[in-house]
Amino acid sequence: MKLPDDETLATATLETPIGRLRLAATDAGLAAVLFPNQKDVAFPKRDGSAKARAQIDKTVKALTRYFEGKQKDFSGLTLAAQGTDFQKRVWNALTGIPFGQTRSYADIARAIGNPKGMRAVGLANGKNPLPIIVPCHRVIGADGSLTGFGGGLPTKKWLLEFEGIATPSFV
User: Fold this and answer.
1) Is 41 exposed, middle or buried (0-12, 13-18, 19+ CB in 10 A)?
2) In DSSP terms, which residues pair with 23 in a beta bridge?
3) Do 54 and 94 reside in the same domain of the chain?
4) Whole domain around residue 52: which residue ranges?
5) How far apart are CA 105 and CA 108, in angstroms?
6) Measured between alpha carbons, how far is 29 from 74 in angstroms, rounded to an integer?
7) Active site residues
8) Cys-Cys with 130: which of 68, 116, 134, 155 at CB 3.0–4.6 Å?
9) Torsions phi, psi of 146, nearest 5?
10) What is the DSSP-derived secondary structure letter of residue 120?
11) Pairing verdict, β 139-140 and 103-104
12) Which residues, 6 or more positions from 83, have their beta carbon under 8 angstroms from its beta carbon?
């Protein structure tokens, strides 16, 4: 993932139960949420514009409330994820997965009108620049198994269990 090359870019970090998340936003909205293990993404410390900082502040408050168990969705945030039209359709479908529920790749493929596109859905899911906010952690294998996750499978397991979803014990 590459952060937007935008003069308004603002960045911040947030300590959470799953480690230090790195956040980036522009005037257009939240652009990236990075897990601690995503060290390959250049992450400049930037104050950005006042509007971008307001996006960051809103995100920090929402994520803090989520990790306190006081917020279950992020519909109040303005998202500015960069991706292809297909990826954006997948990410939009992910936002429809309620807190405490999961869907399979096949479910998402059907939801976007491409029932045979499970593999493409998986690839788009893996490119999601706004994990947790766009809940790609709620997508699991058709057999209930935990599948790849940018933050690592232990983090995916933690997030699902935090939301009350039973997970396989072998992770």
Assistant:
1) middle
2) 12, 33
3) no
4) 10-67
5) 5
6) 13
7) 136
8) 134
9) -80, 140
10) H
11) parallel
12) 91, 124, 127, 129
For residue 109 the two structure tokens come to 């493929």
pLDDT digit of tens for each residue in the chain (171 aa)? 777 777 899 999 999 999 999 999 999 999 999 998 887 777 778 889 999 999 999 999 999 999 999 999 999 999 999 999 999 999 999 999 999 999 999 999 999 999 999 999 999 999 999 999 999 999 998 888 898 888 999 999 999 999 999 887 654
Is-above-0.90 flag for pTM? Answer: yes
The Cα 139–Cα 33 span in angstroms is 18
Residue 56 has φ and ψ, to the nearest 5°, of -65, -45
Other Cβ atoms closer than 10 A to 160:
21
Query: Rounded to an integer, what distance in angstroms lies between the CA atom of residue 139 and that of residue 149?
Result: 9
Q: Domain tally for the chain?
A: 2
Amino acid identity for residue 52 in this structure: A
Total residues found in the chain within this entry: 171
Rounded Cα distance, 156 and 163, in Å: 11
- C-alpha 72/C-alpha 128 separation (Å) is 19
